[in-house]
UniProtKB/TrEMBL annotation:
Keywords of this entry: Signal
Name assigned to this protein: Sugar ABC transporter substrate-binding protein
InterPro entries in alphabetical order: Bact_solute-bd_prot1, SBP
SUPFAM superfamilies: Periplasmic binding protein-like II
Signal peptide from the UniProt entry: 1-26
Amino acid sequence: MRTQSRRSSRTLFAVAAVGTLLAPLAACSGAGGSGGSAGGGGSVNVLMVNNPQMVDLQKLTAEHFTKKTGIKVNFTVLPENDVRDKISQDFANQAGQYDVATLSNYEIPIYAKNGWLHALDSYVEKDTAFDQDDVLPPMTQALTAEDGKLYGEPFYGESSFLMYRKDVLEKKGLKMPAKPTWKQVAELAAKVDGAEPGMKGICLRGLPGWGEVMAPLTTVVNTFGGTWFEKDWTPRLDSKEFKQATKFYVDLVRKHGEAGAAQSGYAECLNNMTQGKTAMWYDATAGAGSLEADGSPVKGKIGYVPAPVEKTESSGWLYTWAWGIQKASKNAENAWKFISWASSKEYEKLVGEKVGWANVPAGKRASTYDIPEYRAKAAAFADVTREAIASAQPENPGVQPRPAPGIQFVGIPEFTDLGTKVSQEISAAIAGRQSVDSALKKSQKLAEAVAEKYKTS
């Protein structure tokens, strides 16, 4: 996630690159006032993604955080592609409209390098109750920039794994391997397709977006032996391995995947799995909490195994939705108080008691896995999730050296634009509007344009 060239030649491009996404939708709530003080009272403006765990946070904040501190939190909540666009605009311009935003381990090192974020080390040092040592090392490392300073705190952490209906496979006399290969998964998908009325074999993201279809697909590319760029920045989207992985993914979702796959992302696949419309789902480990939540129609019916592989030992991604403070914020003290609460042990216990232990935003703290109530509720997926996070290798996710770190992304500012444009080509192939060869031929040219900037710098 480190930029690989000089800041002076990349900052302006980074502004454009991180902003080239979809236009933002209307927010769920306005930004509100920007006043505040380091003491009690005041306010903080938070821009965040509309994932289920964040929706829980929004519901719990007034009664618990604001009541305790007097700090009012004004939330703006948007879908993933849209929130990225709005965050990039506000932070790149240092507009200061939002004090805190949900950023991932992709953006934070880049934003930090561009001077858009507050370093958090001084806050962590003073706030001993936060207990930074309890945060899982892969998360802390992923949110630390080139200068060695910490710029983000995880709200939840995740890797990726395969979720499957144990009961459906059992009825078919099928067994899920403890560590499946992608070829085994494809064979199982064919056999369970139609196992129940309206049920498809597997759900895979097909929705355009560098953080949508390109996330799972890139992990498949890695384990099939492909890479976006070789160590010397030679683009390899037209390589045999990249083509093989992409054809495999596209063929699998077209033959045995969900209806409307080209418009299905994380949210749609989660809904399909919850409603019994698919027998398997490869995606974020964070999805397990919703599947096992009280009231879920599939609670207790799901099995969890590591991300499927081919040529690598592991293939799960490493990801966190984390909190970052905009450098231009005039409410940094209040912003830290909110982050400290939202990423705390205290908040996790609050979610467990008020919402349900399966809904705890886990994957970030070692102590979470020692809570008896959490372990009991998340028994099906807790250990698999933690192991997936621990085994993720952002510096070495494939079979060859890389010029930039990242498992499901390439850690350069240009990847938001490049990944999004390539995702549109892949999604068109999933929709049947073009061949994979055609999609990758166009994508290779896009990657070549990016590579030239690095080869000549």
